[in-house]
Specification:
about 15% strand; de novo design (two linked rop proteins); alpha/beta; 14 helices; Rossmann fold
């Protein structure tokens, strides 16, 4: 990282500490300053009281990771006791809780710190322990791609699908989200008879520093996912859709433009051209820099300016696609959301009081996006 970047980063964390000391972490979470509180509730096994308790311990930026780590370790110890007693379902749920606490602990840990690395590393085995405990058909998978493998989980509906395999939706992470974070939403697709593949693509989750993200060619790793699903026989290769959240919403439409085997696509809080990227929170810009595998914030900003646009792509999307936007989104405006939906097969839904990715309307969002995808793939 450049010296100028380092100064900017140090200034960001100092300002963040001051904000937390003055206003409190929970207040800032409600205002979407330090974390999207509604997203924490919607996507993981944490309720509001859990989040309140952890955030009450956060008194500055330095205490963010230790507070979440303590909660994660306590959950892991509890899960081990439950497992020893033969209570596997409960153990799985608590291992899942531990994984998500590790994830959120890493989220605002200082960039390139040992704390951030520790939280990321601990998240994966804790979630894997949860999957091993549950009886639901969730299978760890590896997608061959560019000399390595993309790790993921295939969530299958219950029942015998040997005569008629279910359709499947590929779920694409955002700039700072990971496959483990999308467990709850994956299960909502499964409840509707649609299998779900949660996967870390290049530059995401476990693939950070393994393969760089190349947003302009996202159809290539997603094509590899379609290839792998086609070879299995337990999902219908002719009925595969794609869903993405935040930056993943942009990536999902890029993939749909270049991979004709995708039958439907959803962009939740995605971007047309990242026009306000330079004004995003610095923590998110750093995540994008790391995803892309470039060396500086200026390199990341130049990359986004030059290559992260859907211009010329929308009319190449043959499949139906849905763009979901929140009018109170702090990262992009309604105009950019509407522009994403302007392709021949696009649809647009705007939540007038919705935040980024509309997780503050989860009770309405889930049936909207999951039923829409099911209607396109099941008929």
């Amino acid at each position: 990282m450049l010296e100028s970047d380092q100064r900017e980063v140090e200034g960001f964390y100092q300002a963040l500490s001051n904000l937390i000391r003055v206003h409190g972490a929970e207040h800032l979470a409600r205002q979407y300053v330090v974390i999207r509180l509604a997203r924490m509730e919607a996507t993981g096994p944490l309720d509001f009281s859990d989040i309140q308790r952890v955030l009450a311990r956060v008194v500055d930026a330095r205490s963010w990771h230790p507070s979440w780590r303590a909660e994660a370790l306590e959950a892991q110890e509890s899960a081990e006791r439950l497992l020893a007693e033969g209570r596997t379902v409960s153990a799985g749920d608590v291992f899942h809780r531990a994984a998500i606490c590790h994830h959120w602990g890493a989220y605002l840990a200082k960039f390139s710190s040992e704390q951030k690395a520790e939280g990321r590393a601990a998240r994966v085995p804790a979630y894997r322990r949860a999957v091993d405990c549950w009886t639901a058909p969730i299978e760890p998978v590896e997608i061959p791609f560019e000399g390595t493998v993309l790790p993921g989980y295939l969530h299958l509906p219950d029942g015998d699908y040997s005569s008629e395999p279910p359709p499947c939706v590929i779920m694409v992470n955002g700039a700072d989200s990971v496959k483990e974070e999308y467990h709850n939403w994956a299960r909502q697709f499964v409840r509707r008879g649609v299998a779900a593949l949660t996967v870390d693509g290049p530059g995401q989750g476990e693939m950070l520093r393994v393969l760089p993200m190349r947003p302009e060619a996202w159809d290539e790793p997603m094509g590899a996912c379609v290839d792998a699903l086609s070879e299995r026989g337990d999902v219908d290769a002719e009925r595969i859709g794609i869903w993405g959240s935040s930056m993943g919403g942009f990536l999902a439409l890029r993939a749909a433009a270049g991979e004709p085997r995708l039958r439907a696509a959803i962009s939740l809080g995605g971007f047309y051209d990242f026009r306000d990227y330079r004004h995003w929170p610095l923590s998110t810009q750093l995540n994008v820099m790391e995803d892309l595998g470039v060396e500086s914030l200026s390199d990341a900003r130049a990359y986004v300016d030059e290559r992260c646009t859907l211009e010329g792509d929308l009319d190449r999307i043959e499949a139906p696609y849905l763009v979901i936007h929140g009018a109170r989104d702090d990262l992009l405006g309604v105009e950019e959301g509407r522009q994403m939906a302007a392709g021949r097969t696009g649809e647009f839904v705007n939540f007038e009081d919705g935040f980024h990715t509309c997780t503050n309307y989860n009770a309405t969002l889930v049936p909207l996006m999951c039923d829409w995808m099911a209607s396109k793939l099941l008929t």
